[in-house]
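Final report, Chapter 2: Outcomes

The project's central promise was a pipeline that accepts a single protein chain and returns its three-dimensional structure in a standardized token representation, suitable for archiving and comparison. That pipeline is now operational. To close this chapter, we reproduce one record exactly as it appears in the project archive, with the input sequence first and the structure output second.
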Amino acid sequence: MNTSISIKTRQRPLLIYVLGWGRSGSSIMANVLGSLPGAASLGEVRYIWDRGALENTICGCGEEFRSCDFWSHVPFANTPFPDMKAQEARRLTQAIGSGARSSQIPALFNAGQRSRYIEKNKDDLQSVIAMYHNIFDRSGCNVIVDSSKSPFYAVNLLDEQRDFDVLFLHLTRDPRAVLHSWRKRKKREEGGKATYFPRYSALRSLLQWRFVNASCERFATLAPEAYNRIRYEDFVSDWKQSLVAGMPDLFDMSQIAGSEGPTVHAQHSISGNPSRFETGEITLRLDTAWEGQLRRRDAVLASQLVAGPARRYGYSI
């Protein structure tokens, strides 16, 4: 384990919720955080009802979700996930999970819509909070990491009637590198049959990057004391210092030492990039292949669509 960086002793458990757009490095960063003493990574919990309970995809530990010894002992509304009916898993996906964006997006941006969303789903949202409580207990950790990224699902975590803290960690990456990544044909290693991640055009990737990151910034207003931001490029360059800079109240500053790469171990993670299955000492390298492969028209499109917000995050386009 990484003994040269340690988490401060906390009075209350902490959920680190990673915000951001896809292909920004959240899976590997969550694994690094989850491998620190006293912490665990859950992967993308917003998919727990569809990709977990319904599709029975592979947990980060290598077992199928319903066979995983960890998740089989984490109930939702008093029902263990292996016993959840398909109809109920579909309902929860559409009500509060990955399929609920049509109601969660208005809730994120409008206080009235947010109140209506919370009131309509209050019983399920109480069960969500209880689920995270059960995860803290089951893991034995005081810090857990949810790399769902979606700022829309994160509306579920704004309930202040909980006995754990939430830190909204906004992870950004150069939109041109993200654009390049979304062009690749990438295998999704989550089941027995070969499936692939979707591939996005430059236009869609850039528009999504802009909209999702702007949506993530809402938490700077909704939860200003709990919102922090970190750049993927800084994390890869110096993972310890970037984590400390991004979450200055979390780590024991006296323990930040050494330049060795992080060591990660298997996590009980739901969904995410295939890198969540990597274990052992890893080398963090910045992928700069996009710099020589970016099409000129895509570079022009990026300058027209995202130059302003990119500059705010420290990217010059």
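Archive annotation: The longest strand covers residues 165-172.
This record, like all others produced under the grant, will remain available to the consortium after the project formally closes.
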